[in-house]
Amino acid sequence: MTDAINEIQDLRSPMQEMPESGPLFVFDRPVRTGDVDEEKQLRLDGVARYLQDIASDQVGAMGEGVINPIWIVRRTVIDVVKPITWPTRVHLERWCSAMSTRWATMRVDIDGEDGGRIETEAFWININPETGMPTRIGDELERVLSARTTEHRLRWRPLLKDAAPDVPETPFPLRFTDIDPMRHLNNTVYLHVIEGLLSERPDLQTAPYRMIIEYLRPIARDSAVAIRGRDDEDGLAVWFMVDGVDHARVRVLAL
Length: 255
Known about the structure:
Layout lengths: L24 E6 L13 H18 L9 E12 L6 E11 L3 E10 L4 E10 L12 H7 L24 E2 L15 H12 L10 E7 L9 E8 L2 E8 L2 E10 L1
């Protein structure tokens, strides 16, 4: 199967549809005020938090037999099909859309009781907690992940290939609370920046729209982070820089 996000080179191509059979991991939760903007719409960083939480919950629900507790995200794609607005509850469904021996793309659809809908896909890498390197997925977790996909030869293919432009930078000072247990900048914090930039581009927040972020290198707590951005008619492009090297790339575009 070649229609998963990982195989797509066209940034606007649709995500893979949910297969008709196989188990899902499902979860319901309320949308809280800390996850919404001034218009009461669920923010991108709120979505990223939900993706982290449901991933941890799925592994935790499998019990002590699962030997792969640590995963990192290489890419996240978020399609805001229709904004989810507070107050509401959301229903999340998570399944694997493609995998290999050490990584997998996980789809999560988020439906709000208000009728809003957000579709996502993330490229997750299984990490050995002792070496910090990619490691083989355990047999039990592999069985669960492979239940809804026939694609077992997943390869990493970047979607965002443009290098950072030579434009002025905006400093982004890090806070102690921005760092996660892996001693890296938490995935949700990158999207705080994107939400701020999107507040100046309301044309891009007219659903449906897509946000793609690719994490190239981890950002440590003592890093001097700077933001470079490029606006054009096709959307918004952002680079997270440390000492002149891009550590993450973001693209926001209308669908």
